[in-house]
Amino acid sequence: MPVHHTFHSELEKLNQKLLTMGAMVEDRVRKAVTVIETHDEELVNSIIRSDYQIDDMEVEIEEDCLKILALHQPVASDLRFLITVIKINNEIERIGDMAVNIAKRVGVIAESASLMKGVYDYSEMSEHVINMLRMSLDALVHRDAAMARQIFLIEDKVNTLRNQAYEAVLKMLAKYPEHPGCMINNYLLARHLERIADRATNIAEEVIYLVEGEIIRVR
């Protein structure tokens, strides 16, 4: 088989692995925001137990990138693609970690479920975060820099909602000072969601670099 054909076949396989990993992480994030509302113990444990799958895939993708770089010494757009894959691979794995962290927080405060529901409604923030993640992955699939740039606008909304969550937690902590653990973990849910939004923004920046060759940093 010609070397050129083998090289581009390897790039396509790498691309598919990255997209598969992205879909897996998006599914975990959707499950994580679900348990914020449902406190489903079985789903919480399922999210935590599945963390190794994302970790293993991240290592496999990074090793594939390094092998391709060593064997084929790509240049121009192919090199840019590999650099992008390495960076996005890391961002996706970190998002998977945040989903696990959300599940762990929910597990810790499950005993105060009735109190937790009264602290802050995370549904709007969760919707924005999932939308940002979905758009970032769609932009990667379609090599759509314009869609990637739309994500930057949503991030401001997420930051505003995080601040609202912080204020709500402070008020509830003043009202229920005997439950500091529950309140702290409630605010950490907002921080984890915000971090997922940040990572989705990072993916969008890398998509723009992949498509246009321009390095963008919105923060």
Give structural notes.
This protein has 219 residues and is mainly α. It has a single domain, classed as Methane Monooxygenase Hydroxylase, Chain G, domain 1 (Up-down Bundle). Helix content is 87%, strand content 0%. It contains eight helices and no strands. The chain is elongated and about 65 Å long. The mean pLDDT is 91.
Mean pLDDT: 91
Low-confidence parts lasting 5 or more residues at pLDDT below 50? Answer: none
The structure class reads mainly alpha
Strand content: under 5%
N- to C-terminal distance: 46 Å
- Overall, the morphology is elongated
Q: Which terms would index this structure?
A:
elongated, mainly alpha, 8 helices, 0% strand, Methane Monooxygenase Hydroxylase, Chain G, domain 1, 219 residues
Short description:
The chain has helices at about 5-40, 40-50, 50-70, 75-110, 115, 125-140, 145-175, 180-210.
